[in-house]
Specification:
alpha/beta, four-stranded antiparallel sheet, 10 helices, 12 strands, 33% helix, 18% strand, extended, binds magnesium ion, EC 5.4.2.8, metal-binding, PMM, HAD-SF_hydro_IIB, PMM_cap
Length: 310
């Protein structure tokens, strides 16, 4: 256990201590060893232990007080192995198989321009799910990515985090309280997404560090700033400023947003029609369905039907 009042400086690896997937420079390595004379120093990376050794050296566990490959699913302390966790041990075979079966059944019903192999890849800390299959060629990958992206464009800004079309539908229909989903960053998010238990990100290792008595833990990473969506923030500020004034702010398109009085959407004309004595009015439009991600591509693009899934 760390002495009471000790400080830990914890560093992300890729993009922080090293360029993505590259080896640490000698300057950085020296700086870290100097820092270690003053405080405890730990590293946490998303990659596995082998990859972290390639980047930080074979003696990485001796050079740092804590080493957390796979975000801490594997942990080393003071040069010794400490613990290991896996998605299989955590979720159990039943739930794991339920998720895999769900993904495979979902993908089985998708009609895509190309389908290849390895639709669900099992890894220690996650499942990686790909509608086209990870065995696709680079050309097929790009073809899928472009199609997937165009579907997402059709859907507009359904979510603030980046998710792509096909992956997104599967994604949305899979939401479960214990699971987190995110695009697979290691592949640029082009053809797959990851499924893993909630909290199994870089913060996972903090659970392990709780047992230590550090007075403070400083985390250094290249992605620690909250993502600032300029338009979202702008609109949120406007809503606050003009609260109660009966205005709607609607983000649409790529570069702008609209401001208009409440109710000035397609229903506006109904006010005019009220004076007429119609017994019934039938409205026909392309966006009349309640928001249901998995039917959207069917409505917009009959060639790639994912309707009736679930
Ligand atoms: Mg990083």
């Amino acid at each position: 256990m760390a002495g009471a009042g000790e400080v830990l400086c914890l560093f992300d690896v890729d993009g922080t201590l090293t360029a993505a997937r590259q080896k640490v420079t000698s300057d950085m390595a020296e700086f870290l060893q100097n820092l270690r004379k003053k405080v405890k120093v730990g590293v946490v990376g998303g990659s596995d232990f082998e990859k972290i050794k390639e980047q930080l050296g074979d003696d990485v566990v001796e050079k740092f007080d804590f080493v957390f490959p796979e975000n801490g699913l594997v942990a080393y302390k003071d040069g010794k192995f400490l613990s290991r966790q896996s998605i299989h041990a955590h979720l159990g075979e039943d739930l794991l198989q339920e998720i895999i079966n769900y993904c495979l059944a979902y993908i089985a019903k998708l009609k895509l321009p190309k389908k290849r192999g390895t639709f669900v890849e099992f890894r220690n800390g996650m499942l990686n799910v790909s509608p086209i299959g990870r065995n696709c060629t680079q050309e097929e990958r790009i073809e899928f990515y472009e199609l997937d992206k165009s579907l997402r464009m059709c859907m507009g800004t359904m979510t603030t985090t980046y998710t792509s079309g096909y992956s997104h539908f599967l994604f949305c229909s899979m939401r479960r309280p214990r699971l987190a989903l995110q695009p697979a960053l290691h592949t640029g998010g082009q053809i797959s997404f990851d499924v893993f238990p909630n909290g199994w990100d870089k913060t996972y290792c903090l659970g392990i560090l709780e047992k230590e008595a550090f007075s403070q833990i400083y985390f250094f990473g290249d992605k620690t700033m909250p993502k600032e969506h300029f338009r979202d923030k702008f609109v949120a500020d406007l809503r606050k400023e003009f609260d109660g004034k009966g205005l709607t702010f609607s983000i649409g398109g790529q570069i702008s947003f609209d401001v208009f009085p409440n109710g000035w959407d397609k229903t506006y004309c109904l006010g005019i029609l009220e004076k007429e004595a119609f017994s019934q009015i039938y409205f026909f439009g392309d966006k009349t369905m309640p928001h249901k991600p998995e039917v959207v591509p069917w409505l917009r693009n009959g060639a790639y039907s994912t309707a009736n899934i679930r």
